[in-house]
């Protein structure tokens, strides 16, 4: 690879935060050690606690040991990596505190600059303004914005307008780490490089689609943050919507960033806006009550220290309709929740049954074909087919079997989503990042539901921690004679 392309200064604002230590540093360690980052590149951590470079390196080392998976930490590799590490002290609101960063960046004014804002969104505008005031924003600068970008259309506009005063749209990388997962990218490979899916991928052959993102954990000490957002804003509006777009979009004319994003925006604009009656019929919101997780009792969402009365949902389920030619009459069922029975993220494409079954009169169940795209805890793609059970029985017995579609392609190191996404920012490839119009279209659709919920159009349900969510979610899909994949 051309190393000049990867020569850059990466500044992480909020560099001693949870995300920086758990995801960004391990990703940069791998990129550096696998040669994707030029050895002269610098990784500059901005923190508000003053410390020396040596103290910072020791801290990064201990965090890498904690968060790198599969024993990937190696002393020798760290010695190579640590040469790239720098630390500066910055208090976001104090312009003068950016001087140390300026001194470092000004050493190489022509270099590509990646500014990763791993902070609460309230700081995005302040940080960008300070960088601009000190002339640290150059044509080679990019800025990465972490989610959540606002809590509705209005607040997301305020944030975006502020950042757009200092960076152009093409310099802004709005991250949705789900798009960095290999299996998520594989959806495009599967759909657009395998001819046999092409004629099947529409309402003639697909009955419905299910998208589930279930977490077994609760709010894990982040109650204050989570309570401002809830499942709809934290998961559905971004991660689940992005997955829906990849399944529903038309083939882009190329893999070029705007071609892909144009097609995703078209899907978001085709989502049927919910009426009050739809919100009542097609949405479910719920909070978890006490229950168990991994066999241990766990408190409910409204129990515990620092917890207040709240109407924030920890679970959301919805039936989404897409008003276009391809998907007319094909519902997309979405659900996401915390403290669910198991951690499980998957997309299931349910195909229609055969037009006439010669096996149906045996009283045996004939299953429909399903394509199961699993994202968590393991990434895999399975096609469920009906197969004859071997043997001499008088009547032909059928059984569903699973064909694994992605086994043969093994790699030594499977990159984490943040590795792929950071490298794309370094390479200035925004394909897997959300463009402004995408973010706004998703909020526009979600806002209607959130407003309906705020007006209590749907009662808040409850579910025990460690279960599959409220029975209302089962009823939601059962209304059309269907059931969730894992029921
Ligand atoms: P965090 O642990 O609270 O880290 C935020 C960092 O910002 C802290 O290191 C904090 O410094 C620093 N900071 C806060 N106020 C500051 C100020 N006035 N001046 C200078 N530094 C200041 O949060 P996080 O979990 O890393 O999340 C960062 C962002 O990523 C959030 O927007 C979050 O929603 C998003 N995100 C996080 C995750 C995740 O897994 N953690 C996943 C997806 C998205 P101190 O350490 O000195 O307080």
How would you explain this protein's 3D organization?
The chain has 487 residues and is α/β, with parallel strands linked by helices. It is 33% helix and 21% strand. The protein has helices at residues 18-33, 53-67, 75-82, 99-105, 124-133, 153-164, 182-193, 223-227, 230-248, 257-270, 276-282, 417-426, 436-454, 471-478, and strands at residues 8-13, 42-47, 85-89, 112-117, 141-145, 172-174, 206-214, 283-289, 291-293, 296-298, 315-320, 332-337, 344-351, 370-376, 380-388, 398-404, 460-464. Strands 16-15-14-13-7-12-11-8-17 form a nine-stranded mixed β-sheet, sandwiched between helices. A six-stranded parallel β-sheet has the order 3-2-1-4-5-6. It is globular. The model has no long low-confidence stretch (mean pLDDT 93). Bound molecules: NADP nicotinamide-adenine-dinucleotide phosphate. Residues 14, 16-20, 48-49, 90-93, 118-121, 146-148 line the site of NADP nicotinamide-adenine-dinucleotide phosphate (NAP).
Short description:
The protein is an alpha/beta fold.
Features:
487 residues; Rossmann fold; Dihydrodipicolinate Reductase, domain 2; 2 domains; 9-stranded mixed sheet; 6-stranded parallel sheet; globular; binds NADP nicotinamide-adenine-dinucleotide phosphate
